[in-house]
Amino acid sequence: MIVQAPDDQARANAPLVPLTEPPPVPVATPWLDRLRHAAIILLAGGIALATLAAFGEITPRAAGVVFACLVAAALVPWRLHTIANPREESYGISPVETPVVRAIVAGMPDPAVLLDRAGRVLHLNAAAAQLAPALRVRELAQFALRNPEIVTALREAIATAEPRSVRYLDHAPIERWMELIIAPVQVPTAFGGTDQCMLMTFHDLTPLRRAEEMRADFVANASHELRTPLAALSGFIDTLLGPARDDAKARARFLGIMQVQATRMARLIDDLLSLSRVELTAHVRPESQIDLMPLIKQVADGLEPLAGERQVSIELELPDSPAMIAGDREELLRVFENLIENALKYGASGGRVVVSVTAVPTSDGGSEYRVAVRDFGPGIAPEHLPRLTERFYRVDVGDSRSQGGTGLGLSLVKHIVNRHRGRLMIESVLKKGATFTVCFPPVKS
Ligand code: ADP
Q1: pLDDT digits (tens, 9 = 90+) for 377-406
Q2: Are 185 and 96 in contact (CB under 8 A)?
Q3: What residues does the Histidine kinase domain cover (predicted)?
């Protein structure tokens, strides 16, 4: 099974709703009705006048003048009439239903709905129609937004004409945390002046909450990891000051354990600092030109003592030509150190670790360098693969701790590889070993 290492940050920012074509916003066509009414009035008036003129009751000239007045009465005064009665109750249309206001609401990036002072929908944009498909222009928003928290906030905002905000958990189409802000706004009307309306905007808080949860988890995990060796150290200090004060044999043994714990703490702090450094520079791509070959040889040589201790042979399959990439030497050393050390620690039972470098053509016609670290140990069960690069994630916490692991190594690898615009792939078959491959784009010539 191959798993592409996920990016925590990208996952936190990922869009939560499938990006489908938004449904059209329902709009009204009142002008057509009015035109029809005017036509009927004119037709009836025209027939009546023609009949009167035909029977000689009025002169054709007088009939013409009356008909002209009728035309003026039927067509001209829609607007005048509305000025006299500006409330929508008279005509079922609000004076703020202007193209400009509609365009502003439509252009808002978040779901937005403009309500009149009674809570009826005047305008809504496509994002709002997608979020709440039941919303209809000129209908009460409360009917469409059935969430009790929203309805209460809406009622309060309408009653007090004051802003309200509410956070709620939306369940459809997927679970996400939303914030609704209802703000009173004075909207310019078509006839001058302003009208009091309510603007509802919805904001998806899920990425923020996820980031916050990740931060809280991270702090909790880091404190726990630091507290464990610290507790061991203070326990042994107490023992050495107390019961084992004069026991030379116990003292030597305890000091050995304390040294291991202190080293573990130092390593943890080192990894945490490296991680935060890499995160700080994540957006800056390294520029130095680095040949991967000598780096890999240097790391393999440095890990020979550990390989000897674990009775594992490190086999290098490197091409003769250099493999140049744009990189940061220290960070790349950390990547290869972590991967080869993990293979030696967790895959020791296989007896061999193979490190190979190949240039592989890519789909865009270019090529990339792939550094694969393969071991023949117990492998990793498929359900763990997608989570291996999460901070502090370990398949077996006890095993990792006994090997001096911090659970941060692969997370660091992933961040460094991302900074180098590369990829990390993890393949494993249970009982047959694991292969960790990092891919880097070659340096542009
Ligand atoms: P650690 O400090 O625990 O080694 P890493 O982030 O480097 O942390 O690795 C996370 C976990 O992934 C390890 O605890 C181990 O369970 C698993 N792992 C890493 N490399 C291998 C491997 N080559 N074979 C089997 N398991 C591995």
Answers
A1: 999 999 999 999 999 999 998 888 888 889
A2: no
A3: 221-444
Does ligand 1 have an atom closer than 6 angstroms to the CB of 342? yes
Distance CA 324, CA 332 (A): 12
Provide the 8-state DSSP code for 385: G
pTM of the entire predicted model: 0.65
pLDDT tens for residues 74-113?
776 554 444 444 444 444 456 666 788 889 999 999 999 9
Ligand 1 within 6 A of 346 CB?
Answer: yes
pLDDT in tens, 166-210: 999 988 777 889 999 999 998 887 777 788 899 999 999 999 998
Q: Which fold has domain 209-280?
A: Helix Hairpins (1.10.287)
Choosing from 278, 399, 410, 414 the residue with most ligand 1 atoms within 8 A of its CB, the one to mutate for a pocket test is: 410
Q: Are 122 and 137 in contact (CB under 8 A)?
A: yes
Nearest CA to ligand 1 atom 13: 394
Q: How far apart are CA 407 and CA 412, in angstroms?
A: 10
CATH architecture of 95-204: 2-Layer Sandwich (3.30)
Verify whether ligand 1 is closer than 6 Å to residue 380 (CB atom): yes
405 C-alpha to ligand 1 centroid (Å): 8
C-alpha span between 342 and 303 (Å, rounded): 11
Residue 428 Cβ < 6 Å to ligand 1: no
| Topology adopted by domain 289-440 | Heat Shock Protein 90 (3.30.565)
Instruction: Give distance in angstroms: CA of 394 to centre of ligand 1.
Output: 6
